[in-house]
Amino acid sequence: xxxxxxxxxxxxxxxxxxxxxxxxxxxxxxxxxxxxxxxxxxxxxxxxxxxxxxxxxxxxxxxxxxxxxxxxxxxxxxxxxxxxxxxxxxxxxxxxxxxxxxxxxxxxxxxxxxxxxxxxxxxxxxxxxxxxxxxxxxxxxxxxxxxxxxxxxxxxxxxxxxxxxxxxxxxxxxxxxxxxxxxxxxxxxxxxxxxxxxxxxxxxxxxxxxxxxxxxxxxxxxxxxxxxxxxxxxxxxxxxxxxxxxxxxxxxxxxxxxxxxxxxxxxxxxxxxxxxxxxxxxxxxxxxxxxxxxxxxxxxxxxxxxxxxxxxxxxxxxxxxxxxxxxxxxxxxxxxxxxxxxxxxxxxxxxxxxxxxxxxxxxxxxxxxxxxxxxxxxxxxxxxxxxxxxxxxxxxxxxxxxxxxxxxxxxxxxxxxxxxxxxxxxxxxxxxxxxxxxxx
Length: 440
Fold this sequence. Notes:
By secondary structure, the chain is mainly alpha-helical. 73% of the residues lie in helices and 3% in strands. The chain contains 22 helices and four strands.
């Protein structure tokens, strides 16, 4: 999409959604569009900073807001990829998993909105944007609650972010009429608008969302691809990882990309450009995720033994040679009943290091399950608040901030952003920790 100009066409359209009211504008672009974009596999920090610059914001604001705006529903990024990891590692059904996260969403969404207003204009902006912020947070988080608790929508919990982002934009546009405002476009942007239709530009996402609706809402397909064709693989005797390759969002991203090529019609040069950038950009995040999951695998199974009769790897939860068991016992003694609160900050740490909520979940899940059992608290809440902390870490993740800064030629500004964003992420993390303390 970047190589063919489709991404630039999307950016022009997003700009026409911006309201003249600055507070509404911030919420529409960074919470509404940000949530929608990240849910279909796009990266808001790559798309939104140039739009913020074009609307007159500073480089500091243009880097900080896109990295913060989508964080509330980061769990539903890439059609719920982190949610699926959470569901698999905790053994909790997808809908129940979504309901647990939904308890946090209305509060966290609103706090993120206030954090963005603070970055833009401190208390003056918070006062002016109080109503739009409350409305955006209530809508964004409320949709997460509605989707997870409404029976006929339950099959589409992995599409929560798509629905929440779209509804948030629509609700906020009621405050910031007209719906589409092309007066904000420059002559160059109008030329971009004419060069490609919006339908063709977003064809990869249209195909992706349509396919996701089909494989999640049509029960026979969901049962076949999610349950019957789970495609488990085994790395250790007796342990299986259900890849669900034909259901998983990653596979459908690839299929959507290939099918969309018939509409976008990339040239040979654009294909070579795409592949070149992919080979350049792919290794670091792939290696980072792989290392985090590998560390989790080693820690979870350390001290394990292969049964003489069964040939299966077994790890006793009270095994003094198991790394997770030792950490769990130490944590239960050190933090006691405050452990659910502390878990939010473990998530911030994991997200800061890995830049990924899914990796954060993989790293800490078994640790939380064992520690929660020792302390007799709800492990699902503890793991969920860690995941939320991992999502909040997007705004202090060097990888994401450098990505955002690079799109507007402002490399170096990320160090300034981290100083302010770190405080905001700590404050929101503190509230999430307090909620976990009450819920767990």
